[in-house]
Specification:
With about 210 residues, the chain is mainly alpha-helical. It is about 65% helix and about 5% strand. The chain has nine helices and two strands; from the N terminus they run βαααααβαααα. Strands 1-2 form a two-stranded antiparallel ribbon.
Length: about 210
């Protein structure tokens, strides 16, 4: 699997499409334990991302990812903008000036994104956040080398399991943390949007290779 800059832009556009399709669902989840705007904010952010990167097919992959991050920071409200923005900027730094990415770049990209989110959000796994979906996926991808499509499928499943896990735990970060035990029973919107993003990447790469 090799993804050039133009194909990376296509993948990001697919992420934006899936976020848009799930906008109402994400907002519904957020209405139970947050500000009821996660889907709206993420959709707005990725729409702006589409416009920003549409002319960047001649740029390196790192520059594209960093542009995604900076755009999300400036357009997505609430905590999600800084968290996802930092994730994409850190991913871009990890990629550097590469004009092409392969499977083995995936754990590097996602690990950098994860560390960025942990740093920005001062959070760890088990606190009902994005990390509960992303960290299990990263752990799967780092357990075997070389990375292949099957391992990526396992990583996406681990992220989905992480979303399910958030239903049974107390929120310890953000607005949801104010609810205390009342946050139990609700799945985390951020973990859900993270799963949607990872799933979109997997589908795009699977379709490219089949």
């Amino acid at each position: 699997m090799a993804v050039n800059s133009a194909e990376l832009i296509e993948i990001i556009n697919l992420i934006a499409d899936d976020i848009q399709k799930n906008k109402d669902f994400l907002t519904e989840l957020d209405s139970a334990i947050g500000d009821a705007d996660h889907g709206i904010n993420m959709s707005k952010g990725f729409k702006a991302v589409n416009e920003k990167i549409s002319t960047m097919s001649d740029k390196d992959c790192g520059s594209i990812l960093k542009t995604v991050g900076m755009t999300l920071v400036s357009t997505v409200g609430g905590a999600s903008g800084p968290l996802y923005g930092t994730a994409f900027m850190r991913a871009g730094q990890a990629v550097g000036a590469k004009k092409e990415l392969d499977f083995n770049d995936l754990p590097i990209i996602l690990d950098a994104a994860l560390e960025g989110i942990k740093m920005r959000g001062k959070a760890e796994k088990g606190e009902k956040t994005i990390i509960d979906a992303l960290e299990p996926a990263v752990e799967v991808l780092k357990k075997s080398s070389p990375v292949d499509i099957k391992l990526m499928e396992e990583a996406v499943k681990a992220a989905k399991d992480g979303v399910e896990y958030t239903k049974g735990i107390i929120a310890k970060k953000g607005r949801a943390s104010y609810l205390g035990e009342r946050s139990i029973g609700h799945q985390d919107p951020g973990a859900t949007s993270c799963y949607i993003i990872l799933s979109a990447v997997y589908k795009a790469i699977y379709d490219k290779n089949n």
